[in-house]
Amino acid sequence: MTDRGLCTTTYDSSESHAILVPNRHVAAVYRLLADLMDSEGRAEVYSLRAADEPDASAMDLAVVEGQGTWSPDMVTLLQDNLTSTTVRTAIDLLASRPGQVVPFDDLLGATGLRSEQLRAELAALSKLTSRLFGRKTWPMVARQGMAGGSTMAYRMPATIAEWWTHGAIQKEAG
Fold it and tell me: Which residues touch 15 (CB under 8 Å, ≥6 apart)?
């Protein structure tokens, strides 16, 4: 099972199949699978990579529920182009609590903004990602009622939180 091109996922083996994919198509297959999983609502995050390529970070993908696929390169591109210190503070807070539901009020407290101001800053994030990636996408789940009640809440998948934090550490060291 070490042939180049053998793809694996984190699926339960009773629900998946191993297939041979030409190397030139592996990344496209991963994106397709991730988009299908997101559209089915089957999972929030899947990290996908070629089984025999331990340093295949370019093929790592994470699916964020309702947002689509993310890769380490996308996280880096967002970090490099994000000029809003408010949005960076909010994303840093989410990355510091990987997988945890973070209520909107916590983001307000971290940023020190009023509700309307923070909503406007997050709307600007949608515009930025649309420009960068050709679609509006956030590196976190955003859903009303996730924290109980009718308040907005956010959750950053652990995989993306790791990419975000790792990228931030590299930029500080560099």
Answer: none
